[in-house]
Amino acid sequence: MNFKESVLFAIKKAYREKKELVVGKEENQWVIRELADPKSDMLSPSIIVTGQGIKYPDHEDLYARLVSMGA
Questions:
Q1: Residue 1 — very low, low, confident or very high, per pLDDT cuts 50/70/90?
Q2: Residue 70 has pLDDT above 90, yes or no
């Protein structure tokens, strides 16, 4: 999955599971981890999503930049 697809999938998954998730890059691929997972701290770049969407406004800016770059 590319970045945009990963974020959309993570939002749907967060809604179903009622959890906060992190979408980030690990070893040249986009992964989804639970926020409570210690490995989520190692993802870079990364954004936090909830069942309602992207959690923080600055993450929305990062999302827009990454999508415009073709991530």
A1: confident
A2: no
Strand-strand pairing, 46-50 and 21-26: antiparallel
Q: How do the residues of the chain divide into helix, strand and coil, expressed in percent and rounded to 5?
A: 45, 25, 30
CA distance 18 to 27: 27
| Confidence check: pLDDT of 8 > 90 | yes
Alpha helices in 18-56 (DSSP H): none
Q: What pLDDT score was predicted for residue 11?
A: 98
> What is the token pair recorded at 42?
């190692």
Per the CB < 8 A criterion, the answer to whether 30 and 47 are in contact is no
Looking at residue 55, its amino acid is: K
Looking up tokens 């870079």, which residue turns up? 44
